[in-house]
Amino acid sequence: MSAPGLLIAAPRSSSGKTTVTLALMRALARRGVRVRGAKCGPDYIDPAFHRAATGHPSFNLDSFAMEAGLLDAVAGLAGAEADLVVAEGSMGLFDGVRAAESRTGANSDIAARYGWPVLLVLDVSGAAQSAAAVALGCAHYDPRIRIAGVILNKVASARHRRLVEAGLERVGIPVLGALMRDAGLVLPERHLGLVQARETADLEARLDRLADLAEAGLDLDAILAAAAGTTPPAGGGRLPRPPGGRIAVASDAAFTFLYPHHEAGWQAAGAEIVPFSPLADQAPPADCDVCWLPGGYPELHAGRLAAARNFIGGLRAFAAEKPVHGECGGYMVLGQSLEDAAGITHPMAALLPVATSYRSRKLHLGYRVARLLADGVLGAGGTRLVGHEFHYASEVTGPPDEAEALARVTDAEGTDLGPAGHRRGSVTGSFFHLIASEAA
C-alpha cells in the first residue's frame, strides 16, 4: 500500500516550516497515525529532528541530485508502512536551480511528482491582509501543485489573526491553523543551522510542547483529510551501492552527517555498518573493509580529536591497507591540520595534503557535480557524482592539481570550479557531500 502525503512549505526561508512540521508530526504520532518524515533538498539536520518526532527515519528527496529511479526508491522508503508522509520543504516553495522542468531541486518538484498537496506556512509578522496576496501568488505560480491551505505563524493577537484571515477568505484559501508569536518555540541554532537533535536539551519535552500547540492551534482533522497523492512502492528503483561489505562509519557529535538513503541502500545490499566514535578515541575496527568519515562539526572538537591518539593511529593503520573516505568534516580530519575559531591549529591525521581553517569563515554553499579523476571507493574514474557543499571552513593550502585531486567539479549550472578534493593511495576526501552517483 502506498501512503498519501503533504508538503509543508513556505514562500521563503525562516517562516517556521520546521516548527510546524515537528508540531504536526508529533501531534499525529500521538494520535496513533503512522506518520513518516521526508525533507526536500540537501539537509542533514532537519531529518534527525523528524526522526525524533516520529520515531522513524526521515529521507531526503532531491529532484536535482537524484535521477528518477533513485528519487522514487527513496520516496518508497519514506512511505513504507506509513499512513501519511509529511515532507518538509527547504527555502521557498519554488526556490531551486536553473535546470530542466521537474529537475530544479525545488520543493514544488516533489509535490508535483507525488501529487502531495501543499500546506503553506505564512510568517505573518509585519503583515495582515497582504499575506493573502503572497499565498495567492504561490497558489497560481505553478499549475502542477495545489495549495490545500495555509498555517499562520507568528500571529501577534486575536485581532491580527482576524485581519489575516479576512484577506485569505477574500481569495478563497482556507486557514488550517495558527501558531502565536512565541520566542520559546525557537530551536537553538549554530553556524550550519539548528543545533543537532542529539545535542538539543530536553528535546522530547520540546516536541511534546509543540504537539500540544498543534492540537490547540491546528485543525488536525482537516489537515489529515487534505492529504493526497501517493508514494512509489517500497523496494523499487535503485538505492546507492555500498563501498564495502563492512563499513566502519565514524559516528558521534563530530561526525553526524550521513544521508539515511545511503545507509538504507548499503544495508539493503547486505552491507554491515559498524559505528565507532573518534571523540571516544576509538579506532575504525580493523575487520571492516572501508572506513567512512562523514561530515559534522570537527571544528568544534578539534582539540579532542587531535589528542585522540588511538583514533589517529588506528585510522592511519587502517588507511595503510584499506580505503578511507572523508566528506566535509571528515575531509578536514584526514588533512594535515585544522585551525579552529580561536586561531589554534590542531594536527590531524595527515593522510591527505590539505590544511583547513575555521577561523576566517566563508560560506560555501550549493550543488556540486563531479567527475572522478581515478578509480576509488566512490567508483571508477569518470563516474559522475552529484552532491552539495555547505560549510564555512576553507582550505588554506593551494588547490590540488589533477594528479592528486579527487574529482573535477562544476556547480549546478555547469560553471567549472576546477579540481576538488584529494586522493592519496586509497585515501580520498572532499568538501562535497555525496547524494548520488552514476557510472560513466
Count of DSSP-assigned helices: 12
Beta-strand percent range? 25-35%
Mind summarizing the main beta sheet? 7 strands, parallel
CATH architecture of the largest domain: 3-Layer(aba) Sandwich
Structural class: alpha/beta
Domain tally: 2
Protein name: Hydrogenobyrinate a,c-diamide synthase
Catalytic activity: hydrogenobyrinate + 2 L-glutamine + 2 ATP + 2 H2O = hydrogenobyrinate a,c-diamide + 2 L-glutamate + 2 ADP + 2 phosphate + 2 H(+)
Domain CobB/CobQ-like glutamine amidotransferase: 246-438
Keywords: ATP-binding, Cobalamin biosynthesis, Glutamine amidotransferase, Ligase, Magnesium, Nucleotide-binding
What labels describe this entry?
440 residues; alpha/beta; Rossmann fold; 7-stranded parallel sheet; 6-stranded mixed sheet; 12 helices; 27% strand
Report what the structure shows.
This protein has 440 residues and is of the alpha/beta class. The chain folds into 2 domains: 5-226, Rossmann fold; 246-438, Class I glutamine amidotransferase (GATase) domain (Rossmann fold, 3-Layer(aba) Sandwich), CATH 3.40.50. 28% of the residues lie in helices and 27% in strands. Strand 6 (147-155), helix 6 (158-171) and strand 7 (175-180) form a beta-alpha-beta unit. The mean pLDDT is 94. Keywords: ATP-binding, Cobalamin biosynthesis, Glutamine amidotransferase, Ligase, Magnesium, Nucleotide-binding.
